[in-house]
């Protein structure tokens, strides 16, 4: 995979411009670009080649695009990229860079360029992806956070996509452990999307790594996010899906992971929950059903004992015993599914005012969540 080129920062503007020119060439996708690299060895050699030589490997229109003169826009992009790289913690890995992740290089259409902000050494760690619904439930987000904290505590680096919901919870949990986290985004790294995760992105850049295949200035285009999913799965040795609707984008990540020969794990849920439909479909299609972190760690060939310190630390910080005897009847009546307040009153034979006070106490303790439509749900830790 490697040629004689070294790190792009050391080579300067000319090398960066060549890679950007190849990556930005109109109509030349990843697969065509890699075919050209295999034939000619480097972007510089591609642009020195005659049109006829190029046409032996790509279409005539692609050959014309490659022979087109450098535009002012491309020159400006190269200059902006150089300025961005001059900032501490910023990196640009070409496909020929020794630091380019080997697992990602093996997929059918790996990115030509990887922009990174933060601790680039994270890319060399054992990686596991945790993904799921943007519109996650309270329980789903808690599961994503606790699973990711334990995975990170075991030394695995958690990869996710910085989206709201499960992704956000996965990053938050992973930041609590030494394995930390990588966020693969669908914009240029000079932007943060969604804006609500700006502070989280800064924390990841400090303690983990932000990663993108998209050039600086790239906005959050809808087509970018399904495409970046192949990078999430390509980096990781396994993908854990926590809550996914029947048409969830997380299923795309899981499908790509299976096609790439990665492990696919899914947390089961209630047969009544729309957010469990995607996970149940994955399990029917061959994904491994998991209920504990240990099952993921064993499949990833990581000793569960490595996570004990992290789990014990979390338990010590959990505060007093929140399943006090006086609330045992209420917690039991809540069961495992969301329940309407009227049904809960009937189950307990309780006064509405008294029940409201008890539910508020349990909600403040993190054991109950208020849901839309006047329903409540027990949260399992």
Automatic annotation (TrEMBL):
Q: Which domain of life is it from?
A: Bacteria
Question: Smf/DprA SLOG domain: from which residue to which, for each copy?
Answer: 92-299
Any one Pfam family match given in the protein's UniProt record, by short name: WHD_DprA
Q: Which GO terms describe its biological process?
A: DNA-mediated transformation
Which residues does the UniProt record annotate as the domain DprA winged helix?
Answer: 318-374
| Family to which the UniProt record says this protein belongs | Belongs to the DprA/Smf family.
User: What name does UniProt use for this protein?
Assistant: DNA-protecting protein DprA
Organism of provenance: Massilia arenae
């Amino acid at each position: 995979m490697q040629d004689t080129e070294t790190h792009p920062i050391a080579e300067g503007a000319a090398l960066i411009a060549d890679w950007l020119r190849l990556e930005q060439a109109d109509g030349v996708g990843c697969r065509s670009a890699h075919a050209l690299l295999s034939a000619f060895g480097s972007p510089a050699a591609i642009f020195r080649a005659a049109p006829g030589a190029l046409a032996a490997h790509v279409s005539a229109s692609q050959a014309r695009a490659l022979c087109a003169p450098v535009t002012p826009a491309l020159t400006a992009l190269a200059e902006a990229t150089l300025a961005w790289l001059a900032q501490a913690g910023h990196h640009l890995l070409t496909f020929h860079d020794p630091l380019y992740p080997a697992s990602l290089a093996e997929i059918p259409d790996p990115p030509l360029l990887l922009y990174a902000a933060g601790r680039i050494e994270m890319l060399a760690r054992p990686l596991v992806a945790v993904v799921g619904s943007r519109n996650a439930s309270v329980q789903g987000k808690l599961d994503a956070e606790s699973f990711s904290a334990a995975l990170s505590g075991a030394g695995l680096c958690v990869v996710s996509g910085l989206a709201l919901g499960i992704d956000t919870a996965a990053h938050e949990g992973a930041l609590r452990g030494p394995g930390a986290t990588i966020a693969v985004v669908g914009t240029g790294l000079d932007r943060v999307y969604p804006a609500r995760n700006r502070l989280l992105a800064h924390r990841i850049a400090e303690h983990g790594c932000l990663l993108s295949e998209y050039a600086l200035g790239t906005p959050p285009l809808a087509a970018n996010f399904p495409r970046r999913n192949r990078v999430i799965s390509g980096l990781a040795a396994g993908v854990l899906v926590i809550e996914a609707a029947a048409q969830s984008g997380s299923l795309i990540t899981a499908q790509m992971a299976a096609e790439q020969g990665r492990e696919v794990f899914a947390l089961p849920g209630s047969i009544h929950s729309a957010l469990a439909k995607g996970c149940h479909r994955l399990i029917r299609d061959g994904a491994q059903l998991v209920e504990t972190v240990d099952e993921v760690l064993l499949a990833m060939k990581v000793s569960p004992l490595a996570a004990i310190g992290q789990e014990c630390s979390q338990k010590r910080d959990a505060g007093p015993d929140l399943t006090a005897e006086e609330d045992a009847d209420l917690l039991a009546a809540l069961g495992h599914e969301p329940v309407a307040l009227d049904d809960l009153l009937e189950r307990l034979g309780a006064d509405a005012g008294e029940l409201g006070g008890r539910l508020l106490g349990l909600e403040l303790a993190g054991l109950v969540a208020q849901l839309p439509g006047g329903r409540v749900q027990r949260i399992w830790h």
